[in-house]
Design brief:
The strands form five sheets. The protein has a seven-stranded mixed β-sheet, with helices on both faces. It starts with 22 loop residues before the first strand and ends in a 5-residue tail after the last helix. β8, α4 and β9 form a beta-alpha-beta unit. By secondary structure, the chain is an alpha/beta fold. The longest helix is centred in the first third of the chain and has 18 residues. Helix content is 31%, strand content 17%. The structure holds adenosine-5'-diphosphate and magnesium ion. The site of adenosine-5'-diphosphate (ADP) has 20 residues, from β17 and α13.
Length: 445
Amino acid sequence: MVRPRRKPVKKKTVRDIDVKGKRVLVRVDYNVPLDAGRILDDSRIRATLPTISYLRGQRAKVILMSHLGRPKGRDESLSLRPVAERLGELLADESGRQRRPDVDHGGTPSHGSGASLQEVSHNESTVRPDGAHLREAQVQMTDCCVGADVQRAAHSLGEGEVLLLENLRFHAEEEANDFEYAKALASLGEVYVNDAFGTAHRAHASTEGVARLLPAVAGFLMEKEIEFLSRAVEHPDRPYAAIIGGAKVSSKMAVLEHLLSKVDKLLIGGGMANTFLKAEGFNVGESLVEDDYLEQAKDVMGKADEKGVRLLLPADVVVAERFAADSPARRVSVKDVPDGWRIMDVGETTIDVFARALQDCRMVVWNGPMGVIEMPPFAHGSHRLAGVIANLREATTIIGGGETAAVVEQVGLASRFSHVSTGGGASLEFLEGKELPGVAALMNA
Ligand code: ADP
Ligand code: MG
């Protein structure tokens, strides 16, 4: 599907709208990795704390909604209940940090809970400097996300209280962007905040439909995503380099074409580089190659030439006899890939060359790993590249792409990038220059 090019627009944020004492419906991305109900990584929950804390500080009544996984109808294994619990703990920590040392917060009064309403997690009460009592750390949860019980729960929320609705995708209407479903969700709030960048490329009821029905603004996480990714596609600092890797060139063709007219340097690695190497006449053995894209790869190289974009392909690669972590492997020049072997990673020389090309850059965007990162022997190129980019002092550095973000997390370097996007598919579409429906639906600043 071809979508219109993204226009350079600024979006209103939660700061630009009066939320005081209002019921604020917030779309968050709590699609966390779960193992039998245990949350393996809570970073998506943590990422929403600034917006939630701000809203609570404004005495808003916070109604959170998210999807989790891909349920076909109701599926208890994909309930957001563990998330409500974790969020409760995080909010308790947060209010603990903000609490003044001279304030007594020993008491934990219990609150009555309605039939469909359970308070998951800590009940705490804090005396605020102005004397008002806010229940600091409880997250209420409903069994569903629409219906009379949910209505009641939303409308009886107190100022500063937090309610999490059950998984939006328990209803097929969510992904169908059903109007009645969007209306039912919208009826819960007075203002809508979207802080779920990771689903902004989908026109679903909670990301797009609702935004048409309520005053709609961006949360802080969404704001940061838009700010950094807009810079990468609209007004980058120069020199500007994009590093594109990952498995398939077919999934990266649109981003390559779009970035070609923006960047000064284009560095290509990972499995998708194989198609370029083959198009250049190199033997790539049994490597992952997309023969249907050889012409397009040539075209990209031709256009780079025309535009004066410096395009770099791997100079050396790590090849393996089999597609397996324990396979015999060695580093060879791209001229010497043995028949029957396959390219699994870029080599040391390639990273050296890439590092030199990046040294003077003021803006660097990285999407897609340099090798088969799932297998430790072939994650080296990506890990080294992460280090190189993290050490660039003068550059705005942006990571887009789910696996790429995982790589920099793995090596503990995420905090040394200017921005690590939380949305894999969404950041890729943004870098392709597409308009994201969830962003488009927010009010312009
Ligand atoms: P992102 O999620 O960051 O956008 P992609 O999904 O495009 O990244 O690509 C990640 C995948 O690319 C990884 O699963 C990795 O194994 C694969 N990959 C990288 N290099 C190669 C290669 N040489 N051969 C096969 N697969 C590769
Ligand atoms: Mg991916």
